[in-house]
Amino acid sequence: MSSALLRRRAPAASSPWELAAETIAVKIRWFGLLVGYVLVNLYAQDLRRQAILNALLTLGLVYTLLDTYFSVRGRVFLGRSPLAVSIMEALFIGLLCYFDAGLNSPFRYYYFLSLICCAIRHPSHVTYLTCALHCLSYGLLYLALPPTERLGVPFMLTLVILGWVTWASNAMALLLKRVGEYLSQLNQALEKSKAELEARIAERTRELQEAQAHVLHQEKMAAFGLLAAGIAHEVGNPLTSISSMVQMLQHRESDPYTLNKLALVSGQLQRIRGTLRELIEFSRPASSERTRVSLAEILDEALNIAKYYKRMRGRIPTPALPPDLPPLFAVRDQLVQVFLNLVLNALDATDRDGRIDLSVTRRDGGVEVSVRDSGHGIAPEHAARLFQPYFTTKKHGTGLGLFVTRQLVADHGGTVTFESRLGEGTTFRVFLPLAEHPDKGRRETGVLAALGPPDRQVSGP
After folding, report:
1. Is 387 strand, coil or helix?
2. pLDDT class for 162, splitting at 50, 70, 90?
């Protein structure tokens, strides 16, 4: 309950218009006080009246100081009680006029300054009520004066001018408020348009970076294919000649020792031919046609390519596949590249004695392949940028492997997620729809732009 009372008693925050109007009103008050002190102390002839007027102006000075203090602190003094301020001002101005020169006192112009301050600070009804209070104050002044000092014409003229000043200042204040609100709306619309433009620029920049990264990756793969095909051709020709010579020597009569060594040479030549065949197969132009493919064959091909990596050395056992696993509806070469990227990343993330496991699990409508390593894990600050193009933590990495992996999997209607703990390892999970749901794989290449951040779970040590 006490907290509720504190909230109830807390002053409401003033709007920018109220603060700006308060600043103007404070300046008007200071101007009126300075002029009043000059008039009283330079032109007053009655010392008794001069003392009374100085005392009244000092009261006004105290009020103005309080008003200034609140204005500096960003608040409006007595902002919730505007009529109380109007009553005090009406009484204050009436007393100044009474002790000065009556109806013709120059202090009667304070009524006009008060109305202007009220019009720029408060709603219209407060301004008109203030005008009524000032007219009442001026009328009481008229009645308090001796009959000889009751001048009808100045009295009526001042009332008319008070009414006109009230209308004019109120109309001007309303116009300024409407213009301010209109400009505020325009500024908000401009800020909104600016934010939308910045968001669109950021989105287009990201799409451009991803497109450039994809093109760069394709160019590198094409250059690698040409290089691999050239190497296979240059090595294949002399290899054929050597193989023919070995076969000729094997057909001749030779001692068992020589025939045994020739058989060993022939076996090694067959091994080289197999390697060249795999190299040519990997370097051939990729097909974009989707067919029914076997997940086991895709994983075998990815592991056969990865076995030539210097850090492989039989560290990845062949995963066991669920029985009766239906085929996938996919582009074979693209899925080979997906699992090859994940396997190579796992090899780079682990030490030579580390462990890498592949597992395949049947899920609703698809299959999930997990690549788990016992490496150093992924730092939490790197997790959000892991699938961004050109981001890499390797010394000689391109930053395109996981970006391309996620894009290829998304093109097949699947997802890539990961979990990681520092010092314990990382697990990447690839979900792909099975062949009985081919429509899920028929997504356009640009679907990645509509995807949000990758699902992930990263923990500290």
Report:
1. coil
2. very high
User: Looking at residue 102, what DSSP letter applies?
Assistant: G
Three-state SS for 38-50 is HHHHHHCCCHHHH
Point out which residues pair with 434 in neighbouring strands. 328
Q: What long-range pairs does 155-159 form, CB within 8 A, spacing at least 24?
A: 155/103, 158/103, 158/108, 158/111, 159/135
List the structure tokens of 19: 């603060």
Amino acid present at 284: R
Q: Which residues contact 377 (CB under 8 A, 6 or more apart)?
A: 420, 421, 422, 423, 424, 425, 426
Task: Specify whether the CB–CB gap between 309 and 344 falls below 8 A.
Answer: yes
Beta strands 415-421 and 456-459 are parallel
pLDDT in tens, 409-422: 988 889 999 988 88
Secondary structure of residue 399 in the 3-state scheme:
coil
Q: Which domains, and CATH codes, for the chain?
A: 13-150 (no CATH), 205-283 (1.10.287), 291-459 (3.30.565.10)
93, 110 in Cβ contact below 8 A?
yes
Under 8 Å between Cβ of 306 and 312: yes
Cβ neighbours around 201 below 10 Å, total: 10
CA distances to 244, 248, 257, 266, 276 from 251, in Å: 11, 5, 14, 13, 26
pLDDT digits (tens, 9 = 90+) for 335-373: 888 888 888 888 888 887 778 888 888 888 888 999 988
Contacts of 273 (CB under 8 A, 6+ apart): 239, 243
Would the pTM of this model clear 0.90, i.e. be above it? Answer: no
Q: What is the DSSP letter of 424?
A: T
Query: DSSP assignment of 42-81, as one string?
Result: HH---HHHHHHHHHHHHHHHHHHHHHHHHHHTT--TTTT-
Report the candidate in 367, 375, 385 with the shortest Cα–Cα distance to residue 432.
367
Question: Which residue do the tokens 């890539």 mark?
Answer: 416
DSSP 318-369: PPPPPTTPPPEEE-HHHHHHHHHHHHHHHHHHS-TT--EEEEEEEETTEEEE
Q: Which amino acid is at 197?
A: L
For residues 435 and 327, the answer to whether their CB atoms sit within 8 Å is yes
